[in-house]
Every structure is written in structure tokens, then in C-alpha cells.
Amino acid sequence: MQMKKSGKVYHLNLNKDQIQGAKYVLLPGDPFRCEAIAKKLNIQSKQIAWKREYRTWLSKVNDKSILTTSTGIGGPSTSIAIDELAQLGVKVFIRVGTTGAIRKKVNIGDVIITSGAVRFDGTSTQYAPIEYPAVAHYRVINALVEAAHQQNVPYYVGIAASCATFYPGQERKESFLGFVPRRFQGLTDELRRLNVLCYEMEASVVLTLCSVMRLMGGCVLGVILNRYKDGEKIALEDLEKGEENAIKVAVRAIKILLSSKNGD
User: Fold this and answer.
1) Which CATH superfamily is domain 16-259 in?
2) Res 141 pLDDT > 80
């Protein structure tokens, strides 16, 4: 949906002129993470829009335009960001997020490169039936893996569980109600047995929508907590470490994709 006079998509408050032909976007959830990501791409990056949870910065890398756009938290707002960016011509979407690991082997500061996601998000089914897989594009996975190697960041490639809520849907008792509904009790242990690495809230939307729209999608998640070992308390230094490593890998991956034979 575009505003008639400006040609801007409604929620992101952007038009094609503003994004200067950008085909790539990095997608943090937090609007306040955008500047740090964009300036890692290019110190001369600039903000071009901020409306509601959607903040967008424009960077230039090797004369190519790269966007950093925040999605807010969860599936509905993420789907709007992806849909409207796709309307403007963006082709490659990489979520740059944080996550709580649920497997013992994963450490704080590691990154999880999401090959696929469990679709508990509640949003992606309005784009494709639940039987449709949420899988990352192989070129994005390869670029993220290469980037992690180059940046010496420990990583895992695997499956995330994307939930519609932060508290009950991720089997957290540290909520106002203080209990987990019956249908979610035991979920974390079941997911561990199914070789799921972590919980988060957006990956399945990014991956499903990109596949449906014939776009390239992927996710890199910085681990800020291991719920198997650390409980539920997040330390500031752990948050900063997970965010920093996810950003380092995502920024390097964009440069790898740009330098590849099919970078355009």
C-alpha cells in the first residue's frame, strides 16, 4: 500500500528514490540497533526514515546501496517490513537478531545461522500453509558461514523455534501470571530432542515470506543467554557480546554476497 502523492509505502515511510536501488537489507528488531549496523557497513551511512518501530538507514558499499531496517518484535511487524521492502525492489533479507539458546553445547556470544525455523509465529500461515517449510536461502547460509569464519566468531547452523510470544510460547514462568499454559508445558525439552537450537520470534516469518516471494532470506542470531545453563537472567555484557557478534557476521556476509559473481 502506497501513499498517493509521495509513492511511499505506508508503514516504512519510504519510496524507491530514497533507497537508491537497494537490493539488500539487514533486519534488526531494535530500532536503536540500526545505526550501529549501518555504520559498520559504512561510517558515512545516514538515516532516511523512522516511523513507528521501522527505522531505516542507507549505506553505500562498493557503490551499492544497502539498507538497515528495524522490524520491531514478532511476526506481524516483521511481515509488514518484508512485504513493503519487497514492494520497493529489495531482494535479499538478512535478519540480525538475538536469541536464547536451549542446547547445552551453545555458548553466550556464539551465533546461530538459521537453516530453518519451526513456525510457531502465528503470522506466516497467512502467506503459506503450515506444511510449507521455513528455510533459508543456501547462498545466504553460505555467506553467513564464511563470514563467521572470517570474523573468528563461533557458530552453529541449525533450526530455531520462532514463537508468537516471549513468555508463554517460550515456556517462561517469569511472567505476570507466573505459569505456563498446559499446551506449552514440556515444549522446551521436546524441542531439544528435535535438535532445535534456540527460541526467537521472527526467523520463520523472514524465511517463509522470502521463499514465497522468490527472494533470498537468512538469519544470524547472537546468543545472549543459554536457558539450559544460565536460567533466565540476561547480563548486559552478554547482550552486548551476542549483538556485536551477530552484527559482525551479518555485515561481513553482505560484503561477501556483493563480491560474489551474482552479487547484483
Assistant:
1) Nucleoside phosphorylase domain (3.40.50.1580)
2) yes
Q: What are the catalytic residues?
A: 11, 84, 172, 227
Query: Taking the model in full, what pTM does it have?
Result: 0.95
**Domain locations along the chain:** 16-259
Phi, psi of 5 (to 5 degrees): -75, -40
Distance CA 218, CA 26 (A): 10
Residues whose CB falls within 8 Å of the CB of residue 230, separated by 6 or more in sequence, listed in order: 108
Handedness of CA 143, 145, 148, 152 (dihedral sign): negative
**Could you tell me the three cell numbers for 17?**
528514490
Confidence class for position 230, pLDDT limits 50, 70, 90: confident
Cα dist. 62→59, 92, 255, 263 in Å? 10, 17, 9, 11
Residue with the three cell numbers 538478512: 94
Task: Identify residue 150 by its one-letter amino acid code.
Answer: Q
The 10s digit of each residue's pLDDT in 45-63 is: 999 999 999 999 999 999 9
CA distances from 97 to 43, 199, 264 (A): 21, 11, 25
pLDDT digits (tens, 9 = 90+) for 118-136: 999 999 999 999 999 999 9
At 140 the pLDDT is 98
